[in-house]
């Protein structure tokens, strides 16, 4: 009976990971659409632009529409970051449930690799600047 319970928990965590991966893909598509909209608004010389809000179109000043899209971009980026963190946590949880231990995973070294964070653009810039200063 415990085997069935363990397997169902693993399956649930795996399904959550797959769902979150699809959610990130959907967020990326929406973010790309917003980028296209921002670019079109920047190219536009019209004082007002039509904006789709839910199930209706509203004509707004171009600057207002652009700021609305940029705010949505920020919300989408935050949602993507949260979802990716959730994927990492669930992957870590799934691996812990499986109890995999190989030579490279001793002392939890493999699990700690999931906690890595990428460098931000600002950090990369400072690294490049310090490398130039060293030369």
UniProtKB/TrEMBL annotation:
Name of this protein: P53 and DNA damage-regulated protein 1
The organism's taxonomic lineage, starting at the top: Eukaryota, Fungi, Fungi incertae sedis, Zoopagomycota, Kickxellomycotina
Signal peptide: none
Organism: Dimargaris verticillata
Entry's localization field: Cytoplasm
Coarse class of the protein's main subcellular location: cytoplasm
Keywords for the protein's UniProt record, in alphabetical order: Chaperone, Cytoplasm
One GO cellular component term: cytoplasm
